[in-house]
Amino acid sequence: MYRGVLPPLVFGLALLIVWDLAVRTGAVDTFYLPAPFDIARHFVDELLHGDLLRYTKQTVWEALAGSGMGLGVALPLGYLIARSDLAASALQPYLAASQAVPAVALAPLFALWFGYGLLPFAMLCALLVFFPILVNTVLGLRSLDPDVMGAARVDGVGWWGMLWYIELPLALPSILTGVRNGFTLSITGAVVGEFVMGGEGLGQLLSVQRQEADTIGLFSTLVMLALLAACFYGVIRLVERLVQR
């Protein structure tokens, strides 16, 4: 346990010490890089007395909606590609090509097509969530032991029983890895959407702070984004551990 916890804690502490010394000695101007303590104090103050929580709730809602949409499409499509050579041949080139289109380029189109409500933000998040889940679902299903599958068919297990009792449990670790990575990226999708389309989340807050040259505010918002991504990652990781028991 300590081997897994101590190294990142020691490294983080050393990084903060070097950072603080660089600011205190004047090697770096506080306008460009505020002191860690000042950022922490501003973060707590905004959390307790400012609007940071309100912006955060909006971003979380967009990320969760997009994650649900991406998950709902990626799982069945991943199963189809893994189990149908025809579907794999037809769809994989287009899916690979879609990853070359940056999300920020699609945001204006989504705003044009769907307006400025929750839907365009959720769809942008879904695009980032979709691919990691799809790839890991296909990988997990294709890597199943063919002997186990064959034995189940000999025993008369039907399609639904095969999926529910054999394929899904055996492929679940790989699928959850994709879900973990995808859900973490959903925060990025929400922020990118708010940069381009506006909104009321953390991306919009970053835009305002950038225009006002509020460096310490920018760092506080980035801390919140990092915490959100870590929370998403940690929750899915906890689910993985519970499933693997």
TrEMBL record:
| CDD domains with a match to the protein in the record | TM_PBP2
- GO cellular component: a single term: plasma membrane
Question: What lineage does UniProt assign to this protein's organism?
Answer: Bacteria, Bacillati, Actinomycetota, Actinomycetes, Kitasatosporales
Q: What GO biological process, any one, is recorded here?
A: transmembrane transport
Locations listed in the record: Cell membrane
Q: What is the protein's major site of localization?
A: membrane
Domain ABC transmembrane type-1: from-to ranges? 56-240
Q: Does the keyword Manganese apply?
A: no
Q: Which organism is it from?
A: Streptomyces sparsogenes DSM 40356
* Residue ranges crossing the lipid bilayer per the database entry: 63-82, 94-115, 121-144, 156-176, 216-236
Family matches, as Pfam families: BPD_transp_1
This protein's name: Binding-protein-dependent transport system inner membrane protein
Q: How does it sit in the membrane?
A: Multi-pass membrane protein
Q: Which UniProt keywords apply?
A: Cell membrane, Membrane, Transmembrane, Transmembrane helix, Transport
Family membership = Belongs to the binding-protein-dependent transport system permease family.
